[in-house]
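Q: Thymidylate kinase, please. Structure only.
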Amino acid sequence: MIVAVEGVDGAGKNTLVTAVEEELLAREVPVARVAFPRYGNSVHADLADAALHGRMGDLTGSVHGMATLFALDRAEVADELAELSADGYVVLLDRFTASNAAYSAARLAEDVDGPTVEWVRMLETGSLGVPVPDLQVLVDVEVDEAARRVTSRAADDPARVPDAYEADAALQQRTAEVYRALAAAAWGSPWEVVTNPPSADRDAVEARARDLADVIVARRRAAEDADAHPDADAGTDDANAGTDADD
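A: Structure for Thymidylate kinase:
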């Protein structure tokens, strides 16, 4: 099962993913975890990072160019993610395809019905074979709070200089709006929306992690039952057809 956790920069995705991972492992559910972009592990991600910090000329100005780099980062491990899911792991992803759709559309001042969201979907899942998550989770937070977290993070770690996207408050606001529209439309697969408390409020974070783990475990069990009884729906359809014929 592939679960993608989404949200703007500073939303608290890493905090929630960590808590959910701990909760699932406590329930003896096997977990694999990947954060995107995979800086330091992907040439495409590293080129995108260089662009976001002004080291690749005018590349950052190309919405489609940047989106393609992020998509290629995911494509590098697409087969591995699918295999882990098939082997019974819950694959927790910090950002995935919806991030590319949300940020790209926001950069072009488009909404969820604009052409860029569909272009990203066709690029990633169509052309590059990136798997579609079984569940997507939007970590919804006020953009001002997210920006405060980004600033605080940079103050604590001088190496984490905010990139061009993180530093653009208007972009972050538009991206948050696109994310909410994607979740409302159940874009690509089912979505859950959670509000993220301050990371210092450990009890609240753990409570949200437990709730989300409940959802993941229930969906995982339902998928396993469906795989174990693939003819159940067909049998129901046959029975219904027979009833219609009798009528």
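A: Brief note, in case it's useful. Residues 202-228 form the longest helix (27 residues).
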